[in-house]
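User: Teach me something about this protein's shape.
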Amino acid sequence: MGLMHQGSLFDGAFALPPRKPPVLSATVLLAWQERIHCHQARVRQALRASQQPVGQLALLPGSDAMAGLPRGFDPLTLVSQPLNFWRWPQAPNHGAAHYFVVDEPPHLEGSLLLYVGETGTAATRWKGDHDCKGYLAAYGDVLRQAGLRAALSIRFWCDAPRHTVARRAQERALIQCWWPPFNKEMQGRWTTPFTALTG
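Assistant: First, the predicted structure itself:
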């Protein structure tokens, strides 16, 4: 008498389909980008019009943390670099820095600041795992499905404070000023659906 093999009770019965990016229409995505752009355009206008250091703008009540930034500091005017800059033979950025991930959608008159970060080691911070990389991948997938394009880059300001506490305080103030949608503090504000895909 041979051994009988009992079949698996769960063969494929409960297999979950692979996670796919949500299907969002171009209209929804364009409106989402436009809302962010409107806020950030107001910030830029206030910075240009201000005779005060950015940390003293009425837009940023009590943000003394930004006092170390240059007068009218606008991260969107920094030199852009490709997101894979860290693969270059010579690192273009060194030491303490704030970094800014930016999209330049062709339909907008200006850029979208998607993420603000800080690091003590600008040459290596973007190398390896980073939550923002997952958000950017999901963002790119959703845009492609809707027939839209992204022009992503990263920008560094390498005069950030060397001391972590001061640098992180500036980072928080920058996030509260610019409302970048991929920073966790702002995801609820902008209802950023593609960030859920990375969790």
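Now, about its shape. The chain has four helices and four strands. The beta strands are 80-81, 97-103, 112-119, 152-157. If you'd like, I can walk through any region in more detail.
User: That's plenty for now, thanks!
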